[in-house]
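Section handout, structural biology tutorial.
Before the tutorial, make sure you can parse a SMILES string by hand: atoms, branches in parentheses, ring closures as digits. In the record below the ligand is S-adenosylmethionine, and the chain has 276 residues. In the tutorial you will relate the predicted structure tokens back to the input. Do not try to memorize them.
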Amino acid sequence: MTTSNEDRDNAFHEFERAGWERVAADYHRFFANLTTRFIDPLLDAANVKAGQRVLDVASGPGYVAAAAAQRGADVVGIDFAEAAVAVARRQYPGILFQTGSAEELPFPDSQFAAVVMNFGLLHLAQPEVALAEACRVLSAGGRVAFSVWSDPQVGVGFKIILDAIAEHGNMAIPLPDGPAFFRFSDPAESTRALTDAGFIAPSVEEIRIAWELPHEDALFETFLHGAVRTGALLQAQTPQALADIRWAVRDGVMAFAEAGRIRLPMAAVISSARKR
Ligand SMILES: C[S@@+](CC[C@H](N)C(=O)[O-])C[C@H]1O[C@@H](n2cnc3c(N)ncnc32)[C@H](O)[C@@H]1O
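Predicted structure of the complex:
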């Protein structure tokens, strides 16, 4: 029996949605001091300013929406996981957050001056549909900007985790089939996707940071508890393999310890473009 593309997309969407319902609170606990580091360049790429109407797609705990509101924008956040929306509402009670899908935005055409998505696109079953939706809800001249993780060769945290699983565990765990996680880390691919969605003047930049970890197990625990795809991969390992992976990740992390601080190189690719 062959599975249609629609069945495959639905299965991946449901896997991600159920996963984010489960990890939303832990994501906030583990990733806050990482993903927030990329918000200013993301908002700059979208040219977010006071008085503009801004949509934060895949808003998670609401960090980007809050930063846009700080700039004086009139912002709404949307996320398909009720648990994520609940965290965001608790964190930022003055900001409007609602449940909904990036691939089917519940807004009329031409409503927003900017649409931003911080580390959302890489989780979507249909990223092209989400970019077309962003274009639809933007007014003429409005800007879209999204961030994704850089290739693991640059974002060392991913390399440590993925190498440890490859070496000590099983990478071939059957998970619902979705778009490649690092697809939009390639500037040519994100430029092509933006142009295909109807945007003009695409531009791509890479932002590199040092992520300070509180202890040697923090990277392993972040991915085990706060991530959906990599978390599922880790949780499906045998107890022995998981223990070996933990040790390998710890060793990898400690290679970046200096004077009592662990500072891991991480990087994101931020792509942006304009609606004609
Ligand atoms: C990695 S988190 C990013 C959260 C936040 N933007 C940040 O800056 O940390 C990804 C978020 O995307 C949401 N998400 C994933 N797929 C989605 C979809 N199809 N529609 C709406 N939200 C989605 C998840 O629920 C999760 O909250």
